[in-house]
Structure formats: C-alpha cells, structure tokens
Amino acid sequence: MRVNSLVPMLTFVDIRAAIDFYQSIGFHLEATDEAHYGEGKINWARMSLGQVTIMLAINGTPGEKSDAHFFLNVDNVDSFHDRIADKVTVIHDLRDQFYGVRDFWFKDPFGYHWGAGQVLETTD
User: Fold this and answer.
1) To 5 degrees, how large is the angle CA 65–CA 5–CA 99?
2) Are the CB atoms for 40 and 32 separated by under 8 Å?
3) Which strand (E) or helix (H) includes residue 92?
4) By the 8 A CB rule, do 59 and 101 touch?
5) Counting Cβ atoms within 10 Å, is residue 104 exposed (0-12), middle (13-18) or buried (19+)?
6) Each residue of 41-61: pLDDT tens digit?
7) What order of strands is seen across the sheet that includes strand 113-119?
C-alpha cells in the first residue's frame, strides 16, 4: 500500500466565505458537492494552488475556532483500513461514496480525525 498524498481538510461555518477567500489568494476551485445536494448548497469543496490541494467542509457553529482534518489519498484503501483498524477508532467504516471515492474515517489516539480513500474506477 502506497500513500500518494496528504490533503488537509479545513472546516468552516461559512464555506462560501472560505471559498471566496481562498480564491482571492490564488486557489482554484476544483470541485464541490453542490450537484449532489442541489444548487446553492455546498458542504464540501476541493481547491488547489500549484501542487497544493486543500479540502473545505462545513462544521462548527459561529464563534467556534476552525478545526482541521486530514485526508490520505492511498492506492489501496481496503488494505490500509485492515492494517490500522485495530489501532484507531473507526468513525465511518469503508464505503463507496457518491463522489467516486472509496473511503473511511478514523480518529487517532490524540483526537485528530483522518480520512483515507482511493478514487474508484469508472466504467463509462
């Protein structure tokens, strides 16, 4: 199993304001989940600047500090899951997502939340 990259997931109360800010400093909006939830509703976005990728997600309430989660892009998520499942607290078990990724989420012993996933092959 090979890890291909680490992508921080930053969480925000107002994701549209966060998207606007990151675009204003040069990030490119690559994808959102708006098509899944309907026009005007965004819960998740992926942005890039050069070779740097970040993900943004809705979380929290006004006045709370932002939180960070981390996402590992791996080449075999099932193997990675099997290797670490007994060492972490699995929050969301392995599943194929509507956005074309097979992933799972876990909490490490220090309280940080991590996701790991791989892009699913398409059969178009």
Assistant:
1) 75
2) no
3) strand 89-96
4) no
5) buried
6) 888 999 998 888 989 888 765
7) 28-32, 44-49, 52-58, 3-12, 68-74, 113-119, 101-107, 89-96
Provide the CA 106 distance to its chain's centre, in angstroms: 12
* Residue 74: DSSP 8-state: E
Sign of CA dihedral 102, 107, 75, 12: positive
Distances in Å between the Cα of 121 and the Cα atoms of 3, 79, 101 are: 18, 17, 9
10 Å CB burial of residue 26 (0-12, 13-18, 19+) is exposed
Per residue in 65-76, pLDDT tens? 556 788 888 899
Distance, CA of 63 to CA of 24 (rounded, Å): 23
Q: Which of 65, 61, 69, 62 is nearest to 10 (CA)?
A: 69
Which two structure tokens, joined as six digits, stand for 49?
């600047």
Total count of residues recorded for the chain: 124
| Six-digit token string for 82 | 């099997």
Q: State both tokens at 78.
A: 């099932």
